[in-house]
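Retro notes, structure queue

What went well: the backlog is down to a handful. What didn't: a couple of records were mislabeled last round, so from now on we paste the full input next to the output in the thread. Example, using ABC3 transporter permease C-terminal domain-containing protein from Virgibacillus pantothenticus:
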Amino acid sequence: MLKNLLKKNFRDFRSHASEFSSVFILSLLSILIFSGLLAASQGMEEKFEKWSESSNMADEWVTIRDQQENKVLQELKDKKSIDQVMQQQYLNVKVGTASSKKQLQLVIDNGTISKPAIIKGDKFSTQTKGIWLDSNFAKENDYKVDSNIQLNVNGETKSYLIKGLVASPNFIAYTGPANDIVADHEKYGYVLTNTKTIPSLKNASNQILVTKNEEYSEFDLKEDLKDVLGTSLIDISNRNEKNNVSEFIQKKNSVKKLSIMFCTVLFALVILTTETTIRRLVNKQRSIIGLLRALGLSKFKIILHYVQYGFLPTLFGGTIGLFFGPRTIAPLILDKQKPLFNMPYWEVTPSKWSWVMLGVLVLIGSIAGITAILKTLKDAPAKIMQPQKIKRTPKNIVEMFPRLWDSLSWDWRWVLRDISRAKLRALIGIFGVIGSLMLLISGLGIQQSLNDSNEKTFGSDQSYKNEIKISPTIDKSIMDLMDSELNGDYQTIQQLPANLSTSRKDLMSLITIVEPGIYMNFNSTDYESVNLEKEDGVFISDYISKQLNVRKGDSIKLIGNFSEQNLIVPIAGILKVGSPQGIVMSKDYWGELEQLYVPTTVLTGQKVSKKISDDEDVVQVNSLAQNLESANKVLTSFQSIIILLIVFAVLLSWFILYNLGALNFTERYREYATLRVLGFRLNEIRSIIIKDSIATWIMGTIIGIPLGLLFLDSYVALANSTTTQFFMHISSLRIGTAILIVLFNVILISLFISRQVKKMDMATALKSVE
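Corresponding output:
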């Protein structure tokens, strides 16, 4: 008997190939995407953790006011919450002469915390004269180990021997001294050395690196640091707060969240499709099940037989997806991340959660078969073999309006009554349309949202032609030259790193001070234009305000090297701005706080002459178009994911809707055969099938559009960081495209399925159980 059941399995798989292949492909695609994205995220996480452990990466980076003698180092070492502590001095130096445009961040430390990975050359040592150069900068500028490099340190140019090429865990996401959008390794990098090489910096420090005792909390550690350092403390940043490290962590987490969010919808649709397929197949074979029971076959063997319909397609499809996901999608994702981060190690690492999700998918597929067959097996064999009673069709909403009901054609009445009679069947179809729309809207909308946010930042909020970044110590004669050559057509801003502190949380961010002009424009979260000069207070970007949990009317503390005293200022409003993030205020209000305005950037609508751009006090000149291009370059790491989402959303939409359409036809097979016997033409039956699908599409679209927009908004938020915020935006054209793709699939599937009406065996379809 088991051999015969196995033959029946193969016959069923063959006769219902379209339905089972849909379950197979949906299982394959869902696990393929999930395992691929998760393997990329897991690889990034594991290599980061491995490097942080081998390098003894700092748990906290403590920025302090410049000290010539570190009198507090021993006191910090005595604190029980602190495991290790190391002081260091960092400053920006120029490569070559003072007029050079190439800059390195020079770090003096003893190499005990956040030890660099040696890419080539000697191990870092505090007892050896020489420097250890950023490997990316060395590669772009053709520097080799044992060659020399000229550095201008505090106005003095000297030649230093390169002892090694390194990658430092403190500079994973470093983009340059001016916090450029993307790293330019040809112009910017970092260099590590010791006081034996540069004795003039001995005992000086402006940063302390700390590792935490595992027995104590981060709160205990920060309290001890605040207690010891007092007013010399500027900021304490952990790995999730320090920009050079947190950007990598945020990107890794974003990829993981993308996989979870996308696949949550996907798995729900796969489960829906699988459960529906098995349940309808079992219902269709009630007479066969009754016959098997009448022949004495045990319930266990029948259950085992029908479990395979959910077990095998999900197992084979999911296993293939699990095999190819980490080998195809994950490498594609990592290749897009490599140019953005200074990580020495990259590797795809399959996640155990992919196996768990495969197990869950197979388990649910199996349970779908078990629950469907158990419900049928509760009855006696004779009752199972009898046709199911047709339920009385209740009145639908439209029938409550007689004139409207009378105006409808007979086929629309049939469709509406059928929906009213089989609400669960209609609901499943609606869910299929909703899920398809959510995937399509998110896939088509996220790309536009990210690109439009960048275009708004570099085109609307910032409308200059050229951006000139200058040294804070720029000579007055150069500023006079700019004023003359730019015909007074410019606007200056000053940007300063600062710790933004509230009673609940601290966050390292940026203060932007803006003088009156036309090239920086700000809008509130109410979409109203903001005039900084008219407000007595500061403005805070929307994303940072949510991170600090502050709102208009609250006060915030500003801590930084710009003032020996902490500045407590009121928040005058919240800005809806992509970049810059942090605090924004007018030049006049900065003056009211008794602070010196020292511009760091000049924005102009004029062409910048070579005389200005070549000056040693001009750090760099970028056009608005270049900044937009750089911002879009960051998004390339998301583009591969976005393309995958769009492609898979279209494919999934087709398979989900096809499966549901095929199952609906199978379930209504007897009804369609009855209509044929009663003399209805093929076109009339096809009309019912198409209109039934359109009714499902209309109801699914009404619910699916708002849900799709909410899902898209959550998707876009994953790309936000402490430096940039993105806003959801999708055009009516793209929403219309998503709707039309689903409609096209619905109609095409309906036409394809309706062709089977010709092949109906009416005698068999209407034959009752003897």
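Agreed that this is the format going forward. Reviewer comment attached to the example: The two ends are 23 Å apart (CA to CA).
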